[in-house]
User: Fold this.
Amino acid sequence: MMSGKPYSNIFFKKNKERTKSLILLPFLIFFVFTLSSSVHDYHVSVTQMQYNPALKTFEVSIRMFTDDLERALSQRGLAQGNEKQRVVIKNDDKNDPLVERYVLKSFVLTDSQKKPVAIKYVGKEQEEDATWVYLEIPFQGPLNGCKLQNSTLMEVFDDQVNMTNIKNASEKRTFLFKKGQAVHIL
Assistant:
């Protein structure tokens, strides 16, 4: 006996504290690795497409993981025989032409007569682990019968999902684009 308390009681308390520590350890490791690494287990982009009636334009913002976009651009360069270094996205870099060409091939709107609608690349903005790509689509008339393709990053990741929210006047709709379903009729 130590200081009037049974030894087994002290042992039990120490084991209880050790058990709490062991239970919390995986959560602590997960938290540290999540903060220290930009690697993620899911591949998703979110697109907001909102109609501005004053300008008769859809204003589009696409948010995707920067490392995913960098990988797509790097693979695209290698596939085209460009043996450059890995593409790194940062604000004020010289990669806007690469991003523009890439996004405009994977994000396509066709009107009800099956003609591609002109899309203007406005720019990109990199923040933390995400890159925002901004587009404008001059548009008049109803969306009924139009088709939207959003196959961004699908050639790189089989599990890529591109969630697209479209707001036109008071109507809001959400579409999920994934492999095998990269085009939706609006």
Observations:
- Residues 1-21, 30-37 have pLDDT under 50 and may be disordered.
- The first helix runs from residue 7 to 36.
